[in-house]
Amino acid sequence: MSKWQEDKAEANRRALARLNKSLPAVFPAAVLARALACRFVAPTPRLAVDGYWRDHPLRADRLARALAARSGAPEGWRWQLGDDRAEGRPASFRAPPAPYREAAHGKGAGFCCVCGQPVYRFGWHVDLWDRGINRNANWHSACVVAWQFWNAPSGQTLLLRRLQGRRCRQSNRRLLRAAEVDHLVPLFEVWRRHRDTPWPALLGYWGLPNLQVINREVHVEKCATEARDRSSSRASAAELA
User: Fold this and answer.
1) What angle do CA 160, 152, 46 make, to 5 degrees?
2) What integer pLDDT is reported at residue 40 of this predicted model?
3) What are phi and psi of 208, to 5 degrees?
4) Better-scored residue on pLDDT, 3 or 219
5) For position 235, what pLDDT does the model report?
6) Which long-range contacts (CB under 8 A, 24 or more apart) does 143-146 make?
């Protein structure tokens, strides 16, 4: 073994000993299996949970939207934009609507600011340990990954390419190296025509149901068509006014 391999093996032995020492009697089996199979063993249960969801962003996306559906929108909430950071409203329609991140609707410590559901030990979404709500947390580990996915889906291009069988969703040709992630329904259209869609159904426009990978030239053509349609709609609205 090389010196690097010896150091890695020793680091993993120490991490495994630390993990076993802090591991509770009940722990998600899939999370533990992933942690033990990693090149570098997670030294704590919390890091094991975080690593699991980072490896499964599409599962995190589905779970976050399912948890949001369980919470529903706060009474009287409506998707609005704002520049005041204290209010917590998004400054752009490109950011996913998140009512529980807004100051007027936040549930406080122990509740996820994305989906509104209680956060339990290790950032998990179910109380497997009968320990109650974790008052030191306001994010589920899954919701952290889902939020990152919604705001920057291009970071999962390789995963989405595999999911599509490496075929362009628009042309059905083989995806080239320069292929890009695109929203089927553009986000400006979501804001213009679907802003009154009940939350959290709105989140689907940022999640997997509204994402595709297409070749760059197809993407450029699609964006040009959308820009022309948008300009035409503005001109028509101006004439009516």
Assistant:
1) 90
2) 93
3) -55, -40
4) 219
5) 62
6) 143/60, 143/63, 143/64, 143/67, 143/112, 143/114, 143/115, 144/50, 144/53, 145/53, 145/54, 145/56, 145/57, 145/60, 146/57, 146/60, 146/61, 146/63, 146/64, 146/65, 146/114, 146/207
